[in-house]
Amino acid sequence: MNPVNYLYLAALLFTIGATGVLIRRNAIVVFMCVELMLNACNLAFVVFSRMHGNLDGQIIAFFTMVVAAAEVVVGLAIIVSLFRTRHSASVDDASLMKL
Amino acid sequence: MSFPLLTATAALPALGAVATAAVPAARRTAAKWLALVVSLATLALAITVLIRFDPGGDRYQLTESHAWIADFGVRYELGVDGIAVALLALTALLIPFIILAGWNDADPLETGSRRWRPTQGFFALILAVEAMVVISFEATDVFLFYIFFEAMLIPMYFLIGGFGDRAHEHGEAAASTQRSYAAVKFLLYNLVGGLIMLAAVIGLYVVAGNFSLQEIAQARANGSLHMVTGTERWLFLGFFFAFAVKAPLWPLHTWLPNAMQESTAPVAVLITAVVDKVGTFAMLRFCLQLFPEASKWATPVILVLALISIVYGALLAVGQRDIKRLVAYASISHFGFIVMGIFAMTSQGQSGATLYMVNHGISTAALMLVAGFLISRRGSRLIADYGGVQKVAPVLAGTFLIGGLATLSLPGLAPFVSEFLVLVGTFTRYPVIGVIATFGIVLAALYTLVLYQRTMTGPVKPEVSAMPDLRVRELVVVGPLIVLLILLGVYPKPVTDIVDPAVRQTMSDVHTTDPKPEVEAAK
Amino acid sequence: MDNLIALLIAAPLLGAAVLLVGGRRLDAVGHWIGTLLSTTSFVLGLVLFAGLLGKDAENRTLTQHLWTWIPVGGFQADVTFRLDQLSMTFVLLITGVGSLIHLYSVGYMEHDERRRRFFGYLNLFLAAMLLLVLADNYLLLYVGWEGVGLASYLLIGFWQHKPSAATAAKKAFLVNRVGDMGLSIAIMLMFTTFGSFAFGPVLSHTGDTSEGRLTAIGLMLLLAACGKSAQVPLQSWLGDAMEGPTPVSALIHAATMVTAGVYLIVRSGAIFNAAPDAQLAVTVVGAVTLIFGAIVGCAKDDIKKALAGSTMSQIGYMVLAAGLGPIGYVFAIMHLVTHGFFKAGLFLGAGSVMHGMNDEVDMRKYGALRTYMPITFVTFGLGYLAIIGFPFLSGFYSKDAIIEAAFAKGGTQGWILGGVALLGAAITAFYMTRVMLMTFFGEKRWQPDAQGHEPHPHESPKTMTIPMIVLAVGSVFAGFFFHLGDRFLHWLEPVTGHSEGDSPIGATTITGATLVCLVVGVGIAWARYGRKPVPVVAPRGSLLTRAARRDLLQDDFNHVVLVRGGEHLTRSLVYVDHTLVDGVVNGTAAGVGGLSGRLRRVQNGFARSYAVSMFGGAALLVAATLLMRAV
Description:
Radius of gyration of chain A: 16 Å
Subcellular location (chain A): Cell membrane; Membrane
Shape of chain B: globular
Number of domains of chain B: 1
GO cellular component, one term (chain A): plasma membrane
Oligomer: heterotrimer
Number of domains of chain A: 1
Strand content of chain B: under 5%
Helix content of chain A: over 70%
Structural class of chain B: mainly alpha
Number of helices of chain A: 3
Distance between the termini of chain A: 53 Å
Enzyme class (chain A): translocase
Organism (chain A): Streptomyces dangxiongensis
CATH architecture of chain A: Orthogonal Bundle
Strand content of chain A: under 5%
Order of helices and strands of chain A: HHH
Keywords (chain A): Cell membrane, Membrane, NAD, Oxidoreductase, Quinone, Translocase, Transmembrane, Transmembrane helix, Transport
């Protein structure tokens, strides 16, 4: 199969993720959309690695996974503590970080 | 390897600053004494430099050179010529007087104050400024110079903003607002100048490939380093702008009156007599040596700016109601003379300008410190609040008058020699500018004598009637300065002997010679 | 013997240093220290004078090099003194009259708690004045020149608690500074022209340069002389300078300092000889001041200010003579010396009168003092006769010689200058007779002073009368002594040069005309102030009188044009500096602040709006990259 099709899939996933980040208010959903974008990138990395016959892309994919895992831990912790204090998981409610 | 004398002269006050800052809060007096002793030891080192310096010898002496940031060709290079030696000695000389004059200026306002060790900080900052000024005079590496030229701003910012004058007619809150305004203004002006200079420093590196003043100047002189006219001019302007802010030259001067007005008298002296000298010194050392052709190209404009500074500063001094602002504007006028002397491109002008830097340092210190003593007694900076002080405190009035007479360049006192040299040096090449600048001497008499008349003569105002005369500490500060003013006025030869060879070198760097007198030229 | 020259200056300088630094400990003896050191200088002067007399007329120039003062490139200034006949004359006048006035001040300032300081300043003045006349180059002369200005400033403002004195002192210094500007420009011109400003090189090379340059130098020197010698247009300070103690007026503002301008012109004779236009300017200034001062002197009721007007006028004579070139130099100096005697005597007499009259200065409140103060009356009277040019007294010889020289200038100029000089003689006779009559004759018009003390005129103590007597003797005999066998002429000729002009009218005719003028002047004065009683309150007077009382409106002019104009200028500049120069900077700062205030609103705190900008930014970057690829 033509590897370019995988790239189309990656672009589609990325767009879905980005749209979700922009339009959803629930922090958990936003968070999942971010994960989706990360995985879309991973997919693109692996495809490029395959297309160019170069292992760099696959290595980076591992890095991304590690970062994503770490991010999940920190991000979920933040969301949980936010929910505890505000009893809401809406990102628009937490708009105090401004000048 | 010989003892690194120049490094020691800069390192001693730097270490002294750290040590002073580390003195425990309760032992304020110990910190003062420590700072004084360190500054005196620095003076001793500076005098050693002065003795070891051979006016007839190499251009740069006591040189030290070590690799520093090898990738960019930055070296730790020090060396002094006659001009630097003179200014180094001036700086080292003035700091002990500044410390002694500011002895009680940084005591906590009320006993048991919880503010962070202000006294220790005050003296540590003064020493830090001294260290940086000293190394700026010594550096022969452009990058090294730039770093300390800029770093000086940090301690100065805190000295201006943190230790302002307590004498304020609108109360402490207004004072602190104005103080931070002055400090920020000082910082911003000089930062802008410094940033533009940074761009020029990088540009210089791109063109020349290293930062060594000696190498570049030599390459410029023997023609092996060619610069496109446009490039040279832009680089020159970048350097000159920073120095003109620091000097300060009209119209970049407005930070000085604010800064001097809001800081205590010793800090005001530190600004105008020590820190600002780095600006004029750097014009002589960097602008002329690195960019001789561009310097000549810019001369007419710079001379006109200097002339405006002279007349404008003096006229504004006449119109001031605040003693310290008046001295600040007088200084702007004097800096105009210094810049004019440098860019007149004659040996009289440049020797005069160097001598002027030294003499202006001493004379402003004398006038400003006595003014500080006066202000601390009455708690006001306004001229109108004084009157008849002469009757109550004759010694104070007498020293104030001598400081004033030095400011108006009375013959017999040191500033006359330098001012006349600058005027003659300018006149031989640019008669019209020389003649107009001579009006400055009338205006100088006007603002000084008006100041003296309004504060010291006339009927004694009730508020000053109990004013004590100078104390021993204050006499120790003013006495030697006055003696020096007279000595250098009557016998300036020791200084001119040191300065003269360096000036001749600079003249040959820019490929100029003095104009010949008419009678001799005819023969 | 050359080495003694520096000691001439060192003695009073030491006195000044000791007295001013010494503090209160010296209060009891300070005045005697000052007098002693001033006299020391006078004795040294006599020794040197005797030494000079022992030499040939051609070899009477001594020099003493002390040290190199300013060596910078081609600019060489030395501390070198030069003693020749011209400076010797001044040294004797300065130290002689100076010592007498020191002695006089011992009595005059007896009740002043700051007497020690007064003597310190007087000694400082002597040192500076001696430096001025002994300097061997113009720059060193300049030091003395400003030094006497400083001493004059300190002494005019000696009673600083009076605002009028402080203002007068400041005014004197400032007006002098305008003149000093001329001197410094002259020195700069000399340096660019001759490469030197020492007397020798400059004065011997005047032939090597253009007349235009010499004229410029000459005019600048004239400006300097105008400032120091109170000549029109820089004369306004002298009247106010009378705020100083009377001995100061006698020494500085009559006998010595104000004549420095004449010294400068005569010393620079070689320059003026080669620049006829500058010379003409000098004579015009002299002639105008001569009349100006005389008119002012006629209208003043303040005895010291009347004498100040007279001083101005007499110096006008000297400047006029100096402008005549070699025909006049010697007579300018001769009149300077005789004037030193009689004018110092007159001022000391005026001081003695004030001393007896509770410091009253208004002559309308004097009258009939001759019986109460006989010595003052006689000495003042002799000075009076000398100044108006009474036959065979000092002023007769010196002034007559100047009038003759003025006519001898020749042509229309000669007639005009001679006529002005004659007219001046008549007015001099008028105003001096007026002073004499109002003070010593007529009826008592004494008034109690502000505290209600009735004046009790009495003769002054011996320390004051002795100097007056000595000066009176000088006023009487000096002229005759100098004139006898043209002694003074032969003494000065080697330095200044001399030539006889050819006068269109004979010497006897001129002397006759001078005497007629004298009689007319005295006669008018007697008719107005001797025959009729003098009113205590000044009458309104004619337009000219009123103008003359206000120094011919020159002060008003200065006030309106310079003082007011200057105030407006500085005030508007302060405004400009604050709003324009500083305003640009503050405006920039405010602009940056405003812009950041706007930009701040973008930070609304909504995480999703930040995300939009991130995506937008990323999209822009990608678009830009693609666009660059395509191009």
